[in-house]
User: Which sequence fits this backbone?
């Protein structure tokens, strides 16, 4: 069974920090790179950070130096540490395999969790 459960979001002031968690079930997640994605109000869902099975990471320019993705394969969990948060980081955050098309190749469809809402505001 494929399952993704994101948590850790909330309301934070600009400059604050949050740590998101994503609990997964299904071998597709432990066997592939993972990513954190976000969708701001009225916008499309975009990739924010990725991590390979071996722990190599990559980030979009807008979060480099502020966000850190990590994974604990033994716990089937992926994390996103977010520091120096800005109002433009406000979005619903999701995790999934990377690239997402991997999900379609294996299961014939997309699976997404409900996401976790991050609101950065004073």
Assistant:
């Amino acid at each position: 069974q494929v399952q993704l459960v994101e948590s850790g979001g909330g309301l934070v002031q600009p400059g604050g920090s949050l740590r998101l968690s994503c609990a997964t079930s299904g071998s597709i997640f432990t066997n592939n790179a993972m990513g954190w994605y976000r969708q701001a109000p009225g916008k499309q869902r975009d990739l924010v950070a990725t991590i390979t099975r071996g722990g190599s990471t990559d980030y979009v320019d807008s979060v480099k130096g502020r966000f850190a993705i990590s994974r604990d394969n033994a716990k089937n969990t992926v994390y996103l540490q977010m520091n120096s948060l800005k109002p433009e980081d406000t979005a619903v955050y999701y995790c999934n395999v990377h690239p997402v098309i991997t999900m379609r190749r294996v299961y014939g469809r997309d699976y997404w969790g409900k996401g976790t809402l991050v609101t950065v505001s004073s």
